[in-house]
Automatic annotation (TrEMBL):
Residues 1-25 are annotated as: Disordered. One of its GO terms (biological process) is spliceosomal complex assembly. InterPro entries: SF3b_su1-like. This is Splicing factor 3B subunit 1-like. It comes from Pyrus ussuriensis x Pyrus communis. GO terms for molecular function: mRNA binding.
Length: 125
């Protein structure tokens, strides 16, 4: 004989008739996809895709204002940014290599390094 369980009638009669009951309990679903994004992905909306540039035809035959950014200026700035980043990476790489060399020199001059070289036969001395 199979036993079945039923909920009490008071619970069965208390069904929510619309989505308001879910909202009261804190189970409201986001209405838009953008609400699902986290801060990292939301940052893309705040980035400047293209800075304001000079329109060469708007001023007619007038001389350009030296404070106005042109396409060439923007491209030059981007090239400088890339070069700066590459230079900083290269400096960091050289500093890391220099630390290794200094550590090897220190190890080679220390008694432990001398003992290690004698045991392994590496290096001269």
């Amino acid at each position: 004989m199979a036993v079945s369980y039923m909920a009490p009638k008071s619970v069965l009669n208390e069904r929510p008739r619309d989505g308001d009951a879910d909202e009261d309990l804190g189970f409201k679903k986001p209405q838009r996809i953008i609400n699902l994004e986290d801060d990292y992905r939301r940052r893309r909306l705040n980035c400047i895709i293209s800075p304001e540039r000079h329109d060469p035809f708007a001023s007619g035959e007038k001389t350009l204002d030296p404070l106005v950014r042109t396409y060439a200026d923007v491209m030059r700035e981007e090239a400088l940014k890339r070069e700066k980043d590459e230079t900083l990476k290269l400096i960091a790489k050289k500093m890391k290599k220099k630390k290794k060399v200094v550590a090897l020199i220190f190890l080679s001059r220390s008694p432990i390094g001398t003992h290690f070289r004698r045991l392994t036969g590496l290096g001269c001395g």
